[in-house]
Amino acid sequence: MGAPTFEELRDAHLAALTGSLIDGVEHGPGGAVYVWSRAIPDPTLNFACGVRRPDQFSWAGATALGRARAPVFLARDAAEAAALRTLFEPAAAYPASWMVARLTPSQPAPDRVVHAYATPAPPPDFEQVFAHLSDDSAVKAHLRRFYLPALRAARSRPGLMPVHLVLHDASGPAACASLYLRGGLAGLYNVSTRADRQRRGLGSAVTVAALREAQARGARCAFLQCPAGGGIEALYAQVGFTVAYAPELLCMTEP
Question: Is residue 235 part of a domain?
Answer without folding.
Answer: no
